Amino acid sequence: MTPVLEAKNLKRDYHIPGSLMKPAKTVHAVKGVSFTVEEGKTLAIVGESGCGKSTLARMVTMIDPITEGEMLIDGRKVDIASEPLTSEMRSKVQIVFQNPYGSLNPRKKIGDILTEPLVINTKVPAGERRDRAMAMLKKVGLEEKHYGRYPHMFSGGQRQRVAIARALMLNPRLLVLDEPVSALDLSVQAQVLNLLADLQDEFRLTYVFISHDLSVVRHIADDVMVMYFGEAVEYGSRDQVFDDPQHSYTKTLFAATPRVDIDAIRARVERRKRVA
Amino acid sequence: MSAVSNTTEAKTGGTPPSGLSEFWFYFSRNKGAVIGLFIFLVILVVAVFAPFVAPHNPSVQNRELLLLPPLFQEGGTWGHILGTDAVGRDILSRLIYGARFSLFIGLVVVTLSVVSGVLIGLVAGYFRGKVDTFIMRIMDIILAFPSLLLALVLVAVLGPGLLNAMIAISLVNQPHFVRLTRAAVMAEKSKDYVVGSKVAGAGTLRLMFLTILPNCLAPLIVQATLAFSSAILDAAALGFLGMGAQPPTPEWGTMLAEAREFIQRAWWVVTFPGLAILITVLAINLMGDGLRDALDPKLKRS
Amino acid sequence: MSLLEIKNLTVEFQTASGPFRAVDGVSLKVDEGEVLAIVGESGSGKSVSMLAAMGLLPWTAKVTADVLTFNGRDMQSMSDAERRKIIGREIAMIFQEPIASLNPCFTVGYQIEEVLRIHTDLSRKARRDRAIELFQSVGIPNPEERLGHYPHQMSGGQCQRVMIATALACNPKLLIADEPTTALDVTIQKQILDLLMKLQAEHGMGLIIITHDMGVVAETADRVIVQYKGRQIEQADVLSLFSAPKSVYTKALLSALPENATGGRLPTITEKLTDAEIFAGAVR
């Protein structure tokens, strides 16, 4: 079976034009990253700010061109630098952003936000567009009465549901989730993670899940890739990476993650008592 | 901390206020703005219904009543509340008809400069690069001239008259809209919802006009009201200099110019058109301040 | 005697949709050398309650409290001038956005020396030495050189260290940290939390950490207050809160942690709870 997404040695450089005071320079944001994601699986990309994970997301979503390397979606090569995207390819990959307050057009009603992808890419008549949007609203746990409302009338979690619904309107194969729950409260985060899991099962969706939160990654991922300064320093199945991290950076990352288990807290409290 | 943010999403207690009522809430907090709005509405009604409101025909000359003082001064009559001018025309009626011109000028100038300014600014802010540099340098050049002087030169080239004055003022006003639009577009363009729309396949025109532009409107509306008042002011100045509306048009600036020589003998001929300009411009500016408070999210306490 | 004591604090804001009660009947005590975490989701009023206690809210907020004392002195009857003397010297605060909390127009050295100038009688030379000493204590390498840097030349973690150094400049008795690590990466968060805990132990000061992150609570707190929509839901020491939460809300919250997940889906109990049920389950 061909994997939904296959990336071979992806690279992305940014050219910063020089000015009077400083010479032009090239920033290597992603330095040759390879991975594959099978249908219905979740690949989590973990890293801290500036590690190139968002740049990678923009390449996979075909927003930014690839500087070097090869990307295949459903076995077909994609290169937006040399040829324009067909709406068929466009529909295959959609994205959900971190900040639910910035990712929905504040001047548009939810209904218009959801039907926009259909208006642009398909010839579906207005009535059916509306029906599909309504159905999708219910699928992501919202109600039909929300169709005519504006984004500012919703909470962060509800907006994120709308953003997920919009991404699914074109029946994509691959969903890039760029820190989709980082801006949400704990209880809402759980709801959205559950929703994502349900949708994955129902539509056989493939996820590229970008996150800095290891506990979320451990919960949702099948495979994990750890990025550090544009390189993939660790790549393997979830259990492999979490149980037996190889790279020193991965180990640092795990050590830095706060632990909420009772033994760890008890140990800390006792340590504190001894010092006091 | 947002007052309406809810923790648990399933329970959205109480609908948040609708756009209009929220707008009015912030607008009405500014008392000056409400007063401005009221005065502006009065002027608008008076201008629209000028033939019914004005006691006399603005261009009929009454040779028997030259430079009649206003009602409250000795010798004034109820027939001419604000007195008459040097050729015996009723000043109040002329002011009422003049309001039509002033509002018309404001409307045309704002429409012209907003439409052209927004289009150019949108192109500059969206495409950036060389196009942007080219457009902005031209705008810088226009802005480098004293605005009234530039308008004067343009009118001198095009020939005096109300229409040409309006075109000239629009051209002078337009760079402000270009700059404002460009800045707003640049700020909006990098936002996630625009990228999201792009991922959904939206083309350039759709992104520019349907996605980005509606989100840049708030500062433009504020600037448009302020431009409205400055257009009235500029038109009056051009009229005063004899380059705008030509006599006997009852345009306020032109009225001022005609009355210049009577400033010693009959103060009312000069004062009332001046007051009319002052009050209108002040009202619109106050209103603009209120609009800014209500529409600018940066000033809004959340 | 507690360092900070608050009883029945209430804060109301006037908004477009009428008066909004952001904090409703919050009571707390912090002792010297104690770390108190106030945890809650957005809209729980955790930051507002602390800002209100410090008198740092805008005039639109109406603040009332039965008791509001710091070190035995009543903060409500105090004049603004007196309160200003206490805040910054005896109570210090650090905020979520370290880069935004520093003035971009001045060097970090100028800003820390400014605080020393206002609150102490040190000479210019002594202020500089103290600034260097403070930078060393918060683990900023090359303090002499770093003093001359502007905020934009430093990373978020470094800026937060500067903020901590500035907060500690006058040896405060109480430090309030409002989401101190939310804007930072995990590895930097670890460093900053370790630093805060080390400094807290060294100075024996009271520390209030306001956070939404259960991980931060677990790593730092002695005692925890859980807030929801402006009200206190539970107050407990950290170990009993995590091992045996009493209120329904805290239980629901802890079960939603991905770390505690047992199956493929996370329990979302809070979704089914109404506000009334949450408030009824509150354990003071």
Provide structural commentary:
The complex is a heterotrimer of chains A (276), B (302) and C (284). Chain A is 39% helix and 24% strand. In chain A, a hairpin with a 2-residue loop joins strand 9 (223-228) and strand 10 (231-237). Chain A has one domain (5-237): Rossmann fold, CATH 3.40.50.300. Chain A is α/β, with parallel strands linked by helices and 276 residues long. Chain B is mostly helical and 302 residues long. Chain B has a single domain (29-295), classed as MetI-like (MetI-like fold, Orthogonal Bundle), CATH 1.10.3720.10. Chain B is 68% helix and 0% strand. Chain B has twelve helices and no strands. Chain B has helices at residues 19-29, 31-48, 50-53, 91-127, 129-144, 147-158, 162-189, 192-199, 204-212, 217-240, 252-259, 267-295. The longest helix of chain B has 37 residues, at 91-127. Chain B starts with 18 loop residues before the first helix and ends in a 7-residue tail after the last helix. Mean pLDDT of chain B is 84; it is low at 1-16 and 298-302. By secondary structure, chain C is α/β, with parallel strands linked by helices. Chain C has 13 helices and eleven strands. In chain C, the strands form two sheets. Chain C has a six-stranded mixed β-sheet with strand order 7-8-9-3-10-11, with helices on both faces. In chain C, strands 1, 2, 4, 5 and 6 form a five-stranded antiparallel β-sheet that branches. In chain C, helix 4 crosses helix 5 (124-137) and helix 7 (156-168) runs parallel beside helix 8. The longest helix of chain C is centred in the last third of the chain and has 18 residues, at 186-203. The A-C interface holds A 48-49, 156, 185-191, 193-194, 197-198, 212-216, 218-220, 252-253, 255-262, 264-266, 268-269, 272, 275-276 and C 33, 41-42, 185-190, 193, 201, 212-216, 218-219, 222, 238-239, 242-243, 252-254, 256-261, 264-268, 270-271. Chain A: GO terms for molecular function: ATP binding; ATP hydrolysis activity. Chain A: It is a peripheral membrane protein. Chain A: This is Dipeptide transport system ATP-binding protein.
